[in-house]
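REQUEST
  id: r-88c1
  op: predict_structure
  target: Ammonium transporter
  payload:
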Amino acid sequence: MSLPDNLNTNDASPAWMNKADNAWQLTAATLVGMQSVPGLVILYGSIVKKKWAVNSAFMALYAFACVLVCWVGWGYRMSFGEKGIHFLGMPNVALDQKFLLAQTFNGYKFPNATMVYFQFVFAAITLILIAGALLGRMNFHAWMLFVPLWLTFSYTITAYSIWSPNGWLSQKGIIDYSGGYVIHLSSGVAGFTAAYWVGPRATKDRERFPPNNILLMLAGAGLLWMGWTGFNGGDPYSVSTDASLAVLNTHVCTATSLLTWLLLDILFFGKPSVIGATQGMITGLVCITPAAGVVQGWAAILMGIMSGSIPWYTMMVLHKKMWLLKQVDDTMAVFHTHAVAGSLGGILTGFFAEPKLNRLFYLVPNWEHYVGLAYGLQMGQPGKGFKQMGIQIMGILYVIVINVIMTSLICLLVRVIVPLRLPEDELQTGDDAIHGEEAYALWGDGEKFESSKYTSVHGIDDFPSVVPKAGGELQMA
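RESPONSE
  id: r-88c1
  status: 200
  body:
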């Protein structure tokens, strides 16, 4: 394979590359990756019942690895490559060094290798968020098939349509700063749809599903929150003032949303719920994502108030009244935290997006696109504002339709090969029945792990056991 024509073999930093941009992009990508591994691995493994800790964490870990292989194999080019059909790019590998070392699209000042890595971590977290709706009952083998199929036939469609320069919604002027549509609305709708097809958890699990470790859950939530610095701060694709604004708006909105949710819990239920505060944190992060760098700070606070109250209402009140919502067992309430909060963020973006900030982000010389309704009214050009709102709502409907249809077709295909739901006996047992391993050894020096084929590999059998001496003291056996 030959090197790119514009790359000097004696210079690893070609003239078109900005070292600061490249370094920040790689850092931002790694922060997003840490939201998944270990962030959501820890969060999922600790927020579920003890018997589901290993399975839940492993669903996230598997998805992260599987998505990367599929992404470099064909997914990236389908999402950002040459135009194939109206809403999809041409599938192709992203492993050729001539491609990877060349400058990426739109004149951004770093190589394709960096862009492939950056976009991979977004694709991976989308699948992991879907898993949140399916915890505690999905057949792991079915999940192994679902991940590559959904990435290929659903994620790539929305990513190409909204984020690719050739995408039809991108060209219409939709504002999705960092994935409110492509990641959060998609994962919320797909997770809810897949949960319908997989079926509910065991009755006992639906009635009582306590977290096995709330402190560890908070550690995972903290990684998720702080990792969002890269999630939203990396999307200008440069070390810019817009990136700085996006980071600050992200954290301001999130904190406001968390406090709003917390106050509502205290007012209506009398107790400040840690799990509730975590949900408020997540809805704030999701809501600000499509708007992060294109709204002012006061708008971020208003968005935080709404993201801490509207999803709270749909989850705590409306969910118990609507027949459809009651029929689907969404373990982590992904529908409310991502589909509702993502749609809310998309609509509020259409209202609060400031034209000047949009020009900084999209690098457009005119005001034809990207005028929030509030500013359209202020400028005496309401038509442009209503047009932007219409595009934002069109994008929401498009993402919903694509994900309901494609997720349903994928689930129907997978269940022809393997059952989507675990059998009843494994639902009762959990991790030990599925993986032959359990998360916690609470007694007996972990003898439950003796059945694992990895026990002797890790030298567990070589450690001396501890037995009590007469008088109650401990000694080595």
